[in-house]
UniProtKB/TrEMBL annotation:
<dbReference type="GO" id="GO:0005524">
    <property type="term" value="F:ATP binding"/>
</dbReference>
<dbReference type="InterPro" id="IPR004344">
    <property type="entry name" value="TTL/TTLL_fam"/>
</dbReference>
<keyword id="KW-0067">ATP-binding</keyword>
<dbReference type="GO" id="GO:0015631">
    <property type="term" value="F:tubulin binding"/>
</dbReference>
<feature type="region of interest" description="Disordered">
    <location>
        <begin position="199"/>
        <end position="222"/>
    </location>
</feature>
<keyword id="KW-0547">Nucleotide-binding</keyword>
<protein>
    <recommendedName>
        <fullName>Tubulin--tyrosine ligase-like protein 5</fullName>
    </recommendedName>
</protein>
<dbReference type="Pfam" id="PF03133">
    <property type="entry name" value="TTL"/>
</dbReference>
<dbReference type="GO" id="GO:0036064">
    <property type="term" value="C:ciliary basal body"/>
</dbReference>
<feature type="compositionally biased region" description="Polar residues">
    <location>
        <begin position="200"/>
        <end position="212"/>
    </location>
</feature>
<dbReference type="GO" id="GO:0000226">
    <property type="term" value="P:microtubule cytoskeleton organization"/>
</dbReference>
<comment type="similarity">
    <text>Belongs to the tubulin--tyrosine ligase family.</text>
</comment>
<dbReference type="GO" id="GO:0070740">
    <property type="term" value="F:tubulin-glutamic acid ligase activity"/>
</dbReference>
<keyword id="KW-0436">Ligase</keyword>
<feature type="compositionally biased region" description="Basic and acidic residues">
    <location>
        <begin position="213"/>
        <end position="222"/>
    </location>
</feature>
Amino acid sequence: MSNRFMHLTNYSVNKESTSFVRSQNPDAEDCGSQWSFSGLLRYLKKNCKDIPTLISNIEDLVIKTIISAEETITTSCRYTPHKRNCFELYGFDVLIDENQSPWLLEVNTSPSVTCDDFLNLKIKSNLTADMLSLVGVKCKNPVEKKEKLTIANAYNEENFYWVKDREEERRGGFVRLFTRQDTWQRNGPKHLYAKKTAMYGTSSSGPRQNTKAYEEKLPPLT
């Protein structure tokens, strides 16, 4: 128990260990002391593990965690003028046991996006870019002269942007978990609404269709 590097998954602690191996190649996501999630899934798949089931269980864990904290989350956003005035990025620490069952360790609000090696830079820069694109932050050249907009024109311009570019088209590497086409089949109370469930039938989409999104390599930095 005295060896804190053995029992903690915290990167800020483990990177100080003398045996920590830093990433020297951003394309090598499954070597060294820190792997990408995609690299881990490819490794598990190579060793004949059931990746679709693991992904489904992790997604279920994330959904239920957010629902359990819904009241706290919505309360903190209650006094914002509009739902698009704020957003939050959550970092889930998940432990996977020998039976491929995920266990939630903690959820970090505003997780660190510090980049101190090549792999962190690759993952976190893409994460940050996709996050800002998803919430609708438009990229503008700070050198260009700023145009003066009236309140009405600014409002119309913002509304046009949100109508033209839907969240689904701006999600980048993010995967939508809730709600989606198979939400009722996965999360609905089937024992209470059996007739309604039968009416909806089975969905062709689901975690087995989305596994590829997690396994694909992150796009290179440009």
